[in-house]
Design goal:
Blueprint (H helix, E strand, L loop, with lengths): L5 E6 L12 H10 L5 E7 L3 H13 L4 E5 L10 H8 L4 E3 L1 H13 L6 H4 L3 E3 L3 E3 L8 E6 L2 E6 L3 H18 L6 E8 L3 H7 L3 H4 L4 E7 L2 E8 L4 H15 L3 E3 L7 H9 L4 E5 L5 H7 L8 E6 L3 H8 L3 H7 L4 H15 L3 E7 L14 E8 L2 E8 L4 H21 L3
Helix pairs in contact: 1-6, 2-3, 10-15
């Protein structure tokens, strides 16, 4: 039976002091969404018995049907989940002999000593049900408390994912539950607030569609989710998103940023070469992340010094003296030079001041120029970026490839 309300209780000091990020809940939520089951609440707490008991009571009092517990089932003294839940339901801890035997066999196989703290992983609240763990030492367990089913799993990601699959997802699949319908759109060149403004009125027009945003620098990812019966509304909502985002929408699929660009160049039998300065080879990296990019990517050079710009790309000395390496004139000559050198359809270039030093009043840190060359036509674009060195480099490389993508798909 599909649970109506699901919560997650993540246990571990390391989750709250910055040592470890709780990625288990993210993967769990994604897996459950396939069955139109949403995680309503997540609680992260320390390895502390009274705190675990208190939060478990709060969870049941919120009318939760299923609580998935992550962590605190290992061999160390701070693994207190089993003890805490035994206190919650007022029973003794008991040792599951079958599990204890398997732990001993596993330790002997790996020539490790059999110690009491290893065997305590076989302990569970007396009235609970053992949940087998075939990929690790510690099993999980489940029990009911005031109408809520608690399922406790190890926090190790590999083991947690196995337990979720084995003890939750397989059951949901057997019920043949209709899956949640989802769409994802990836945009570049807009801030999250700008995307939200473009989609103002969405909720009034499509109240049954859940709209979400996620910033994954330098992209903004827009997600739409709908119940199976609202699939037609989802299609209409998707059309609205495409129309509103226009050229800023670069993909509706997962994968490398340049995947769509590489595919379109391959389909049209066109080629690309790049000349980089401030990005230090990042443009070439983004292109070659795409399988099959060798069919379109001819040449990539990093000409960091003025001398290399002149010797390799043919940038004129007068241009560098008069306008500087970071200028519209220079990137146009860089783009022209790499295109002619490699005999490519497109030449793409970038030069800028990534920071944190090197800026001037006329050209402050974050000043970047992009050049694009094709037969009979060249253009340049200026960026004024406000981030640190790493992000400025990333944005410069993405912006250059995005300029080519837009010119290739939306020729002026």
């Amino acid at each position: 039976m599909k649970p109506k309300r699901v919560e997650v209780l993540a246990i571990g000091d390391e989750l709250l002091d910055g040592r470890v990020a709780d990625t288990n809940t993210l993967r769990l939520a994604e897996a459950l969404s396939e069955f139109n089951v949403q995680v309503a609440h997540r609680t992260t707490i320390l390895d502390d018995t009274p705190t675990i008991v208190k939060e478990a009571k709060n969870i049941s009092q919120r009318g939760t049907d299923l609580c998935i517990v992550s962590g605190g089932l290992g061999p160390t003294s701070d693994d207190l989940t089993a003890l805490a839940f035994a206190n919650l339901i007022k029973v003794e801890l008991v040792r599951d002999e079958e599990t204890a035997t398997k732990i001993k066999e596993r330790l002997l196989k790996h020539q490790r000593p059999i110690t009491e703290n290893q065997l305590k992983q076989a302990d569970r609240p007396a009235s609970s049900k053992i949940l087998k763990n075939s990929v690790g030492t510690a099993p999980g367990f489940s029990f009911n408390y005031q109408g809520c089913l608690f399922m406790a799993f190890p926090g190790v990601p590999k083991e947690f994912d196995f337990m979720v699959e084995e003890h939750i997802l397989k059951t949901l699949r057997l019920e043949n539950l209709p899956s949640l319908k989802k769409k994802s759109f990836r945009s570049f060149g807009l801030f999250e607030a700008q995307v939200d403004d473009l989609l103002s009125g969405f909720h009034d027009q499509f109240p049954s569609i859940r709209l979400g945003y996620r910033a994954h620098f330098p992209e903004i990812i827009i997600s739409l989710k709908a119940s199976p019966e609202d699939e037609e509304f989802l299609n209409q909502a998707s059309k609205m998103v495409r129309e509103k985002l226009g050229p800023c929408l670069f993909s509706e699929e997962s994968g490398p940023f340049a995947q769509g660009l590489v595919q379109s160049l391959r389909d049209s039998k066109q080629t690309l070469s790049v000349a980089e300065s401030c990005t230090g080879g990042l443009m070439g990296h983004l292109i070659t992340e795409v399988p099959g990019s060798s069919q379109v990517f001819n040449l990539g050079v990093t000409t960091y010094s003025n001398e290399s710009k002149m010797k390799v790309l043919g940038v004129k000395e007068d241009t560098l003296l008069k306008y500087g390496a970071v200028s519209e004139n220079t990137v146009i000559e860089m783009a022209d030079g790499i295109r002619k050198l490699s005999q490519s359809t497109y030449g793409l270039s970038v030069s800028g001041i990534a920071g944190p030093e090197g800026g001037t009043p006329e050209k402050p840190v974050g000043t970047v120029f992009i050049g694009l060359s094709r037969e009979g036509k060249t253009e340049a674009k200026k960026l004024s970026l406000l981030f640190d060195r790493e992000k400025n480099k990333i944005l410069s490389a993405f912006s250059a490839l995005d300029l080519l993508r837009k010119r290739h798909h939306y020729p002026s």
